[in-house]
Amino acid sequence: MTETSFPSAGRKPLLSGLLVALLVASFAVQAQGLRLNPNLNLGPNVRAERPVAVDADFIVALVNAEPITNHEVRQAMRRLEQRGGARPPADELAREVLDQLISERALLQHAQETGLRVDEASLLQAEQAVAAQNGLGLEAFRRRLSAEGIEPSAFRDDLRRQILMQRLREREVGSRVQVSEADVDDAMRARRAALSADVSVNLGHVLVQVPESVGPDRLRELEARAQQAADRVRAGEEFASVARAFSDAAEAATGGQFGLRPYSRLPELFVQAVRDLPVGGVAGPLRSPAGFHVLKVIERRDAAAANARVVQTRASHILLRPGPQLSEAQAIERLAGMRQQVQAGQASFESLAREFSQDGSASEGGDLGWSEPGMFVPEFEQVMNALRPGQLSEPVVSRFGVHLIRVAERRERELSDREQRELVRAQLREQRAESALDALVQDVRGRAYVELRDPPRP
Length: 458
Fold this sequence. Notes:
Helix content is about 45%, strand content about 15%.
């Protein structure tokens, strides 16, 4: 049999879990359906051997003798399209979807062959959790699935596969990823070293210029003048008045301050003199070819210290999920109308959220609680971060639907040493888990027998 590769056009692989309906996403995330799922990075190109079939449905690939049909590919493509966002041309998208379905099928077979199972009790509990997070009872949730063209039995099968994949990840990847205290220590030191290079200071500066050709007596007079300026600053006199009285520098007229600058934009003489000084500390007189300098640390911003603090946002949203009964354009139009109602005082945001939002936060008036950076998907968080407290967004499209976002308030919280260590530990685990997962996918895919039939038709 002769095989040829389909081109991938250098495009990144799509997200995993393509067989799972959009509502399943809320099972693996929090109630508001905005937090990111772990993604499988699946990669090898698909191979083909025969011309395209013209039948309504046909087998496009066999994975260890288990078929994948063109209908499955098209279903997965439709679910991707419901999420919105940019997509490649249909033919290319179909090839990428098939490639991922092959890898996922191989992983599911590996999970079952090695003893992983999802019992009915676990499946029912997961289904109930999805229903609850969408603000519905189980039977009402199943009716909604049917109304949106999704068979509840197919949904349960997809959910079973999703749970099985998650358990496989936990067993094969989670157990292998170890992060020791020494690893955290090393990462913390590297982090501090990287951040320490990003310190910025605002220096007050007095320059007593020294001409190129100057005699010893005049040099002593100029040094004494610089010393007098330093003494007055150390005695607590306002720096701006000292600068105006003594400094020959250009910034003297505006109070003698440089403004915040990173160390990389300051002379090395200045950096060495003020590096260990506290805010308010004074250095000098310092001699340079230009003359005598007196420096005062007016302000210091340490990126390492700033990194130990986190800005929290309390926001609310109304979520509409596009589907067979509601297009994305219609969802945007409906939310724009709700926005006008709120701004005109004709309805409260909370009442509209309770009545219309298709999210688990609806019962709370759309309140998402306090969040920290990275908790929401980027397309949602980017808009939320740009809003001022009390401000209402325009309709925002994310992978979970269309949102109307309102920010209530913000606050800053300092991370404890323990929280910083746990944050670094989690980052290390995630990095290593991704690498381990990639290796698992490549290993399982490499051992699977894949026979490619007709190329998929979108």
